[in-house]
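Ligand: inosinic acid. Inputs:
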Amino acid sequence: MNGKVDVIVGLQWGDEGKGRVVDLMAADYDIVARFGGGDNAGHSIQVGDRRMAVRIIPSGALVPHTELFIGGGMVVNLETLAAELDLLSALGADVARVKVSDRAHVVLPHHALVDRARERARGADAIGTTGRGIGPAYVDRVARIGVTVGDLLDPRRAEAKMRASFQASAGILAELPDAPRMEDEISSTLAQAARIAPHVVDGVAFIHGALERGARILAEGAQAALLDIGLGTYPYVTSSHTVAGGACVGLGIGPKVIDRVIGVAKAYCSRVGGGPFPSELEGPIADRLRERGHEYGTVTGRPRRVGWFDAVAARYARRVNGLTGVVVTKLDVLSGLERIGVVTAYRRNGSVVDVGEMSEGIEVGVEWYEGWGEELKSPGHALGDLPAPARAYVEALRASFGVPIEFVSIGPERSAFVR
Ligand code: IMP
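Predicted complex:
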């Protein structure tokens, strides 16, 4: 096996700009493969003057030669996938490059209703999910009543499994006025299945065939370390493994095939939905970061919570991912602040605690860095050309990850990064 897999993961609470990093790197790879999550993720791409959000198809869709693989660890909303295939075709992209693993699971229409009903039932403790049915689809998978993409190739089998899934949620659905009828769900899903069928492959054979031919594969993570189902701020997490190890089970590869693990971190933090956020800011600085950073959800449009960079969470993300390098995004958003905070410790009752004990209202220690007044506009400059306070700040971030910085983005344009 001569091929190699590099993995890109988010290091905070999502929305670090992974898609853009994958877009930049995709040309060097034969395959971009997503390994987890579904259309809860969202990444916008710019085509001429059109902006479109891609939620299921991996980033890098506009690089002509890369194959785009929807891995077995994903849960796939067929309607979203069909719409993305249509959109990419309309933009002139060759969609035959899109392959879907037979092991991926299907998000059925009722899953979204169950998701939202469970959120309502949690009241003030709501997770703040994207409402796309991701959790309930993974619940069906773990309960061994899920419908796989492979099942869709046999309509009779798919139908029987869809009935079982629907009936397992019958209690909750009976209370919802807008619940889909089971027969409608089955017929619409089978119609969409026919559209997806030409893209379905044996996911493990596909990846290993490619590796044996020496392919370079970029595994694209969704969400981020602190939203991982096992390692994040449970229960305020998503329902899949978002860390680098998720690429192994989500694609069906052993850990030794992985070469680089590149984490993506924003120069500050943001979080959508509920759950603890130790470095959270409110007031004028938060408003400034939100506006300058366009911190509104790609999928939901919700304003994101924002805060200082969190070095405690950064060290944790480094450990659970086994990083080899880091990309820092959106450094330019911090320009113009007099001073910039970095959270360097969590404390409870005077004792220092780690991420495992993160909770609402935990006390934090903050270290302050000098700001820089000027905008970081000029693309193509080296890291060393940044203003001295910006360099010192980037060095502090690097030290908290303990791995080299691959590059730092300083603006939304493709060329606006320094290394
Ligand atoms: P779910 O994945 O829709 O179940 O949502 C669970 C949690 O993950 C919520 O806090 C969501 O806001 C968060 N989440 C899911 N996907 C993303 C994402 O792409 N970016 C940021 N947060 C996300």
